[in-house]
Amino acid sequence: MDRRQFLGTSILFVGGSALAACTSHPQGGSSAKVTLNQWYHAYGEKGTQEAAKRYAAEYTKANPDVAVKVTWVAGEYETKLNSALLTSDAPDVFELGNFRYQLVKNGQLAPLDDVLDGDRSDFSRTGLDVVTVDGRTYGVKMIDDIMMLYYRKSVLDKAGIAPPQSFPELLAAVTKLTTTGQKGLFVGNDGIGDAAYLLLWSGGGDLVDGKTIAFAKPAAVEAIAGLRQLHQSKVLLQDFTTDWYDPGAITQNAAAMHWCGLWAMPAVSKALGADFGIVPWPRFGANGTPVARLGGWYELVNAKSQHIDEAKKYVQWLWVKQADVQKDWSLKYGFHVPARMSIAAQATELSTGTAKEAVSLAQKYGRSFPNLWNTVMRTAFGDAVAKVAKQAADPTATLGEAAKTCQAELDKQLT
User: Fold this and answer.
1) Cβ pair 294, 366 in contact under 8 A
2) Residue 1 above 70 pLDDT?
3) If pLDDT is split at 50, 70 and 90, which confidence band does 23 have?
4) Which of 147, 200, 173 is nearest to 389 (CA)?
5) What are the structural domains of the chain?
6) What is the mean pLDDT of residues 49-72?
């Protein structure tokens, strides 16, 4: 189990998901003039809650007028957060894995451009774009989670296969690597996972282009339909004992190639030693580009807080100025990348081998979901992709209908 929400949708791992929110006493002395309420989702990695409280106490020690109350929220974090933001008990500072344009439209977020002032260039362009609306930035990235394609070196070498650089190479490789006891590729138990998004992006397409849904354009449809080829070739591992975000499929020799995340690298290394490598998702078509998925968490400030200035100063201290805190949070309790590029470069755990390569892949090829992409759109797109991949539905017509649903949802957000 891991503490992060991986992907844009972010898969939440918690210890005891039915638990209620746990609110600590304010970290710091009782003489503070202001108390900030800071929300975290209930990370499953041991030591995270204690670390969050420690950071808060350190801030109060340096700023005695401000105490921080850490609220640890188990269960459906985003649902509880959305409800709380409508009440007087709303947090002043909170984290979010899926940044939503709607929060800005509803006036629920304070812009944080001044928090990033002077340090903006140290955050990835991809990470900043997700939280930028109409030229203003509303979030500070806390950690980056990188997703890429793992492969077994010995298995590929034995088959005489080089790590694939294009979709035809990927299809040929996983076809040859599929044997009686092992499938060529694992992207998820449903045989879909992130693959449709990866194919779309790797073909040079996108989900949203300005005010228009873009995944139903001919080149985009062609790329997404590559998933049908993978299904028809019977190369995909499905219904495994764990899903794609757990490295079990590759470490247990159930798949020769496995789409997974940096968080899994310590477990993969422990199981396989040096017998693994990583590559981005291969490009689709002559105009395509490789893709690495970039997820993670953002820190945000409630626009209706009674203490916006204090909240912004705390966010700046915690996620912009404190290098030791950011390395501790990313690497001591799991395996993730500090969001500030200069701090990631200082981390010895990320300075060599495949970990260093993963960071480089993210910086070169990282893609994230746009902030306009919401649950309704995800469901419509996912249903269409499943029909195309598994039921041989017409890609153009099926994705075209899904695009209409998504366009109506997009128009609703933008009006």
Assistant:
1) yes
2) no
3) low
4) 200
5) 22-145+294-367 (3.40.190.10), 147-292 (3.40.190.10)
6) 97
